[in-house]
């Protein structure tokens, strides 16, 4: 119930204004977001790479409504990739892209063209692109665009969400050689017709999906902070004889940093998903919805305490 309310608030511009103008929410935002500027993203990436992590950078923004906005997002990624290469941060850092920010909602071809430009720039910078997954109405379109992008840029990866009933089958399709799949639980509010509703069913689906990916010939990216699922991931790596360069764990910036350090200490590859930019509101609300305990911290910040 609380999760539903928070995810509804994520679409409210009144709520966004309230949060943006509250005195101390900046600190709250900074816990999960590198900062508003490209330089913030580069600074945080440098620090994480120096700590032994790899990184994927997300320029925050979604639901772009004009071609000009979509071009601006594309250009931000092109500049970011150039800076990452110039600073010697590739291949340790790659980028994550939301197709809705590139125009998918109103022009799929435009989103594809913009994504293709980003994939070409990533390749020139010696790194990769992973397509984020948004709500279920976009899954087919995103996977269609992935197939087209992979024809020219085979290292392009995609996210699959274990809460969707279709995902086991998508994992089978995408478990082949050269494929990069980031498996997460899923962060949107989805109807029962398409998504498992209970945490237990989502976790079970995650285990089935991760087993398919780890048994396959692709490169699985296990994106979760859930200690039980991480332990199962470690276990499947042993079953399927996968070394630390044949899969990776991924977590979000600001969440369970001690676990990220522990996994690095154990020799695993760990990638931190680092969001940056001004459009942080929808992202922040999804993080709050995942963990209502964050709300206490957030309420204090809103009230300026
Ligand atoms: P779960 O929510 O059960 O959390 C397990 C534990 O992790 C919690 O008990 C808590 O300790 C900690 N934790 C989790 N979330 C927290 C939070 N917000 N604040 C503080 N602690 C928290 N989703 C999507 O729909 N599309 C996408 O493209 C992506 N991309 C993506 C990339 C990466 C690298 C990650 C790690 C996650 C995503 N997600 C995503 C989000 C994902 O779907 C999911 O909502 C979150 O990862 C939370 O799920 P967990 O698997 O961590 O389990």
Automatic annotation (TrEMBL):
Cofactor(s) the record lists: FAD
- Recite the UniProt cofactor note for this protein: Binds 1 FAD per subunit.
Where FAD binds, per the record, is at 133, 161, 185-187, 224-225
**Catalytic activity reported:** L-proline + a quinone = (S)-1-pyrroline-5-carboxylate + a quinol + H(+)
For the ligand (substrate), the binding residues are 98, 286-287
Q: Which UniProt keywords apply?
A: FAD, Flavoprotein, Nucleotide-binding, Oxidoreductase, Proline metabolism
This protein is called proline dehydrogenase
